[in-house]
């Protein structure tokens, strides 16, 4: 379980400090798929960056299985797969295969394990035709699929995605959703932000709604539907942001 306890983070913008995340607390259960939604600037990416140990909170703690993640960064990062929006982290002068081999080696994977993972991911995401081409000539969607494969190359226990289907066509987005369900069935923990409510409805058990750095709802999606007597996530999010039917 991941436990976020009274976490805050602020950044300096010119001469002012802006609080990106304001004393939030939440629990992420092992093996659950959790959707993170909110407007741009709501604090979603800041939360994901803290969960990934890339930035530390100004206040509060984040623990994985009872241990502070910032006191055990190396061990935590070995269990994480992380993808932030358009930040693919790929090297343009390398082929897709070479990129994946390189990132696999960073996790001390054997050559055989790397090869097997690349073969599986290339088949899953339909990358076979361009696996040995240099990334610099790739479309946005092609780069995004390689970046997702990079995130999963070491078969992580916990996966953090920030807008993972950005740039993907309908077919690729559906393949990604199928992969999320497969990971869920394998007991993986997945947290992803998205503006696509259909993805939340199809894939998630739990949901975190953020607004101006605060959590306006955190819990089971089905409980939210029952509380509000609606399954329209667009309406439910707007309602929460407007302060109607607040249950947290």
From TrEMBL:
GO molecular function ontology, one term from the record: ATP binding
rRNA-binding among keywords: no
EC number of this enzyme: 3.6.3.-
Alphabetical list of SMART domains matching this protein: AAA
One Pfam family hit: ABC_tran
Positions of the ABC transporter domain: 2-237
UniProt superkingdom: Bacteria
Key words of the record: ATP-binding, Hydrolase, Nucleotide-binding, Transport
Key word Nucleotide-binding present: yes
Family statement: Belongs to the ABC transporter superfamily.
UniProt name for this protein: Sodium (Na+) ABC transporter ATP binding protein
């Amino acid at each position: 379980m991941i436990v976020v306890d009274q976490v805050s983070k602020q950044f300096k913008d010119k001469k002012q400090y802006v609080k990106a995340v304001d004393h939030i607390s939440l629990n992420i259960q092992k093996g659950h798929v959790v959707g993170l939604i909110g407007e741009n600037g709501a604090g979603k990416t800041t939360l994901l960056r803290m969960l990934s140990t890339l930035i530390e909170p100004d206040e509060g703690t984040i623990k994985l299985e009872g241990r502070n993640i910032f006191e055990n960064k190396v061990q935590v990062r070995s269990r994480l797969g992380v993808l932030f929006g358009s930040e693919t982290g790929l090297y343009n002068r390398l082929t897709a295969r070479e990129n994946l081999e390189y990132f696999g080696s960073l996790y001390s994977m054997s050559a055989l394990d790397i090869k097997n993972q690349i073969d599986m991911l290339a088949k899953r995401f339909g990358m076979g035709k361009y696996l040995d081409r240099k990334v610099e000539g790739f479309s946005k969607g092609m780069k995004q699929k390689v970046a997702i494969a990079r995130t999963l190359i070491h078969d992580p226990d916990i996966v953090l995605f920030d807008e993972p289907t950005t740039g993907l066509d309908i077919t690729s987005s559906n393949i990604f959703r199928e992969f999320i369900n497969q990971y869920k069935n394998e007991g993986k923990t997945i947290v992803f932000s998205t503006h696509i409510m259909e993805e939340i409805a199809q894939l998630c058990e739990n949901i975190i709604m953020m607004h101006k750095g605060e959590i306006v709802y955190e819990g089971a999606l089905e409980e939210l539907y029952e509380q509000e007597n609606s399954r329209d996530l667009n309406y439910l999010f707007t309602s929460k942001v407007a302060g109607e039917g607040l249950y947290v």
